[in-house]
Design a protein that fits this description.
Number of strands: 4
Largest sheet: 4 strands, mixed
Shape: rod-shaped
CATH class: Alpha Beta
Radius of gyration: 21 Å
Mean pLDDT: 75
Number of helices: 3
Number of domains: 1
């Protein structure tokens, strides 16, 4: 299972703990976004023999805040020597 996650660059196998029992996979660790958490679940489901996936991964707060921050334009500061706007 872990090898499968290593082949997908869009998820981090290094920060994902994988437990398998009776075909049921449990994922733990940190995901950098909700999308990556969900993608990890989908990759695990694609492995032959997997019956179900319990994804207990947490989404990093810093990543959520970075992703949620709106893009802003730099403020223009007027000075007597700058061209008029």
């Amino acid at each position: 299972m872990k090898v499968t996650l290593l082949f997908h660059r869009s998820v981090s196998a290094n920060t994902t703990e994988v437990d398998v029992k009776d075909g049921i996979v449990t994922l733990r660790g940190d995901a950098s976004s909700q999308a990556k958490k969900e993608l990890t679940t989908e990759y695990a489901k694609d492995v032959e023999g997997v019956k179900d996936v319990n994804n207990e991964m947490t989404v990093s707060k810093t990543s959520e805040m970075t992703m949620a921050r709106p893009v802003t334009q730099p403020k223009r500061i007027w000075s007597p020597n700058s061209p008029t706007m």
